[in-house]
Amino acid sequence: MYSSNTVIVLSLLSAVSGAAPTASEDTAGRYPSSSVEARDALPGISWLYASAECQPWQYDNLVRAFTDVSQLSIADNAIPEGNNPEFEDFFGQGYTGNQGALFWEIFDNLNRAAMFPSTGEGGVTPATKIYPRCNDVANHCSSQAKVSAYTGDASLYSGPPGAFIVLCPFFWTRDFPHLLDRVAGTPTNSLNSLMTQEHIVLHELMHANAISYGPDGGAYDILDLKSPLPGESDNPNIPGSISSVAVYGVQRCKKFAAKGSPNIRTRKNADNYAWFASGYYFSKAWGVAVDGGENILPPAEDPTGFLEVNDGTVYGDDLVEDEDV
Length: 325
Description:
The protein is mostly helical.
C-alpha cells in the first residue's frame, strides 16, 4: 500500500540539523559517489534493487533525492506557530485544547519521513529499510496517466521485508527539478509549479510503514485519501462536490483542510504533508509567500519551463475513502 525538520531555510543554517548549501554554492562532493558511501550516508535506504534496475544517471538522481529530502524536515526549534499561513492552508486552524497534541504529531510524522533516509531510525535490518526501485513491480505506473511513483510492501513481491518506492517512467521523462536546483532558480509564488524530486520522495516516504506513525508508534497509516470537495470532479460528466476525488495537488489539499476547524484527517493524507513542507521551505528560502494560484509564465519569461504548472501529476498508490464522507 502507499502509506508515506524545520524546513531548511537557506538563510538560517543554524536552525537546521544539516547544513544546506546556499543557492550559489557548488554541490559537488555533497552526495555519496559510490554504493558503499550511499549505504553509509543513508542508513535508512537499501540500494539492492536500484543498483540493478536503474540506469547510472537514475541511480545518481535517487541518491541525491533521498539525501536532500531531509531539507524538507523542520527542526524542533523552528516549528511554526499554528497560525502559520502554510500550516493553516494544508492542516487547518484550531489545534487547541484536546487537539493541541495533534499539532505536534503532524510535525513528528513529517520529520520521521523526511529524516528516515539519513537516520534510519535504527533501520539497520532489512525490515526497516526503504528500497528505491525503477522496475514497475506492481504494474501501477501504467494504471493511469502521469503516475510519478508509488510505495508497496516489498515482501508481497518476493522481496525482503520492508517497503519499496517505485519511481515510474513519468518521474524521469517529466524531468522534475531537484529541490536545491529549484530554490536557486527564479522565485515564484505559484506553489503548484514547485514539485521537485524531493517533494515526490517525501510524499512516498509518508506511506512507508517501516517509519512508524502515530503517538503509539503506529496508530494509523498515512494514505492517499479520497473525499468530496467543492468544485472538484475526476469525471467531466459529474459536477464537483458530488463524488469523491483523490486529494492530490495544492488546490485539493487546501480544500480538504478547509473541511474542518481543524480537519484532523489531513494528518492522514500524504499530499497535505508534501505540499505543506514544500510551501514552507520555498517561502522561507525566498522570503515570499509561496501560496499563489496555478499560473504559468509566458515562455519568454520562463524559457526553461521551470515554472510550468504541476500538470496533473498523480501517484500510483491505492486510494482510500476518507472516513468522514
